[in-house]
Amino acid sequence: MLYIVPTPIGNLKDLTFRALDALKEADAVFCEDTRRTLALMNHYGVTKKLFRYNEHSERSIAEAMSWLTLGKKVALVTDGGTPCISDPGRKLVALAREKAIKIEVLPGPSALITAAAGSGLPVDSFVFLGFLPRSSGKIKKSLDSAFQTGKTVILYESPYRIRKFLAMVVSEFGAETRTVLARELTKVYEEWLSGTAQSVLKDLEAKAVLKGEFVVLLRPPEVEEKPEEEADEPEGYGE
Length: 239
Description:
Layout: E1 2-4, H1 17-25, E2 28-31, H2 34-43, E3 49-52, H3 58-69, E4 74-76, H4 90-98, E5 103-105, H5 111-119, E6 126-131, H6 136-147, E7 152-157, H7 162-173, E8 178-183, E9 191-196, H8 197-205, E10 214-219
Parallel strand pairs: 1-4, 1-5, 2-3, 2-4, 6-7
Antiparallel strand pairs: 7-10, 8-9, 8-10
Helix pairs in contact: 3-4, 7-8
């Protein structure tokens, strides 16, 4: 059994009962950073074997698979949030499915969903880009393709690149691009900035120090929203 276990993105109280049960039941826990996961486990009084999981290491994946093929229960966690969503885990999940190993995916903390829900932008349908490539040319190409869909675009960006990134949005896609930034979500210093790309960039430039990864939500200014009474109604879900 492979458990996909979301862990808190900041506030340790956000670990769910099911996630805690999975960690307690697991024979082994594979994680990004054993030190970070050990702190979480100690907080909840859980003692388990911890193994560092590296998505780019065949040996690491093989080690996790060896536990699974022996019929053991393995929990996969990351430093925070849901595994496989711009975090390690996809290759292990794909291999486990290929080998017909049972997988249990638990719902839980996600910076993506938290930011989308609190943004105030239309997110009934959106484009998620995760972490952008390093090349400025590739960044522009990715954003251009995403903006052409007419949907809200969501991505992650580091505090070291966020000012440069927003300056590029202003110059390449327009100063009026609707923008929401969220950082340090669920933590003591949680912060939201919203407005146009130009105004949000100005807010950032006024800050001496930036800490914590940003969730960035963008929407082209020319996109018109449907009035609520004209919006398409989903069928069969959420009823």
